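Journal club prep, notes for RB
We'll compare a predicted complex against what the paper describes. Inputs for the 6-O-phosphono-beta-D-fructofuranose case:
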Amino acid sequence: MTRYTLGMLGIPKIQSPQGKNKLSSIAILTSGGDAPGMNAAIRAVVRTALANNVKVFGVYKGYSGLLEGQIFPMTASSVGNIIQRGGTVLKTDRCEAFFQKSVRREAAHILTRKGIGGLIVIGGDGSFTGAHLLEKETGFPCIGVPGTIDNDIAGTDDTIGFDTAVNTAIEAIDRIRDTASSHDRIFLVEVMGAQSGFIALYTGVGGGAEIVYVPEAPLTLDQMKKVIERGMKRGKGSSIIVVAEGPKPGLAQDLSKGLSKSGYRPKVCILGHTQRGGTPSAHDRLLASALGSAAVGYLLQGKSNAMVGVQANEVRLIPFSKVIGKKKVLSPNLKDLVQTLSS
Ligand code: F6P
């Protein structure tokens, strides 16, 4: 089996079956929230497939576009000049209808009627659930490429878009810190991550935050006040508290109200969708290129019902059954590091 590592960018040597088992056409779609680097992954899929004499169809607007038949052939030039662009040129969607079995069966028919023999889905856990069920129920081969700023997909150390989102958030925090220290203020900076605190934790460590609040291990107001007081005792006038948005909207505002009752005057800054847009970082482009290319490679080798991911800097194929619905755990060491470095 070919093993792809991040050091093996370029087009991998793919040993695909010849003759009647050879896949002649594949399709690609992006699904769920967009993430910087998705375009680099689309480019890698298209160019790797074409280099192996496989036709590629792009599907507009995720599973919704698939059901509407918004499927068109892609060429090497359809993906020219996109590696540096954020968002997804294929557009994306969160498709409720795809939860229905009958709808997934229809999707398989639509693809098969076009002569398409495999589907690459770039997205997150929900998008992979759709792909997994599609394959399980209809036998239509699917491979997932992890693309989400949240980095909350089990089985892969990294997801496309996470690095860019963290860099965007850290840049914002650097700016906020200037004004926070000038005014001796406390700032609550809310970052994305409804179910997971990866963005918050990495941003907190990289941005030098005093406190990081994550849904996996929420802090009490008293714990937060203790850290603020400890800083004040050694002359700190300002504090940055990074808050993951969590499942319920308005968390940073609620925490701000709680702190205000103790006499603090915190300011709230919600970074929101600024973290989803923008030029992908070099890291995300490399990751996307490696994973997109490997996804085609595995599909051509007859592998499917799985995600391409990175483990210890190696690209691997991980069965959907070991990915979907599984919780990816935040490093406790990194959580401790926030405390140690802010003390
Ligand atoms: O794509 C992941 C994510 O950005 C989460 O961090 C966030 O909770 C959610 O999507 C927001 O989704 P939407 O753009 O649909 O509001």
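Talking point for the session: The domain at 163-276 is CATH 3.40.50.460 (Rossmann fold).
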